[in-house]
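Q: Got a minute? One more chain.
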Amino acid sequence: MLLDNTGLNGMRSDLGHLDESSDKLGFVRWQWEYRRATYDLKLHDRANGEDYFLRITTRAVEGKLENPDAILEVEAVYIGRATFPHGLDYESPIPQPILNTATQRTQELKQLLS
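A: Always. Here it is, folded:
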């Protein structure tokens, strides 16, 4: 599921600050290459035992990712149910408590990046 109204899309930050801010909230920079990086936050739903991931995709608009001064721009924010062995199902319904937590974390990240 694409989360359109987070206020994060289009925000820019240098890599060092984005890494530090996202780490404070529990995000991990998983996938990355010279121009793109993905930040994931694992959310566990105790009611159904499923794991969900809040995923923020970014693209370097200045510099490359090995440089902490590189400027990244948030491209999109997604949430999906984890599937075995590794992957995300973006079509499954997301429980409301997980959506609430995801919304809260995106707002916290937006404040840290502002």
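A: Residues 96-113 form the longest helix (18 residues).
Q: Perfect, thanks.
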